[in-house]
Every structure is written in structure tokens, then in C-alpha cells.
Amino acid sequence: MLGSRSSRDVVTCIACGESVSRSDAREYDKHGDRWNRDGKEFEYLCKSCHGQLTHAPREGLEDRLTGAGAGTLGDREFLARYLAD
Q: Which of 24, 48, 53, 82 is 20 to 30 A distant from 16 in Cα terms?
């Protein structure tokens, strides 16, 4: 059936890797704009991991992470650059 969620009823938490039912998960939008849904595919967090998030504004965070070398450097070097920024 078109639009059926049956194939998406189980999602994987992007933080801990646990598989949970979609109804027991929270949508996560890395762009911070979960209300603009056009053309988006959301990632999910289990309720436990979602509860541990800091729900603070993220304006400028993506630029700061990119500038510090997120995903391209080892943890120590990335953290040193991130904290020095």
C-alpha cells in the first residue's frame, strides 16, 4: 500500500544503534528544522538518547564543526580545534 509505514515501523537510533519501534523513537533533523518536512528523510533517536540531548539553539554549529574538521580528523585533533575555536 502506497504511503504505508509497515516497512519503516522499526528504526535505528543514530546515537546508540538500538533498533526501536518508530512510535518509541524521536525524529532527529540534523538541520534543526523538523517542521519543514518537504523532501526530508529523518533520522531517529531512542527515547533514552533523545532525553540526553541538550535542546539548545544550534545556529552556526554546522559551520563550527566543519571548520574544526569533523569527520576528517582523529578525535583528539578535532576536539582540540573545536575547543580552540
A: 82
Q: Which amino acid is at 61?
A: L
Residues 6 or more apart whose Cβ sits within 8 Å of residue 29: 40, 42, 43
DSSP letters, 20-72, are: EEGGGEEEE-TTS-TT--TT---EEEEHHHHHTS-----TTHHHHHHHTTTTT
Cα separation of 19 and 46, whole Å? 8
pTM over 0.70: no
Q: What contacts 10, CB < 8 A, 6 or more positions away?
A: 19, 20, 21, 22
pLDDT digits (tens, 9 = 90+) for 42-70: 889 999 998 888 777 778 888 999 999 99
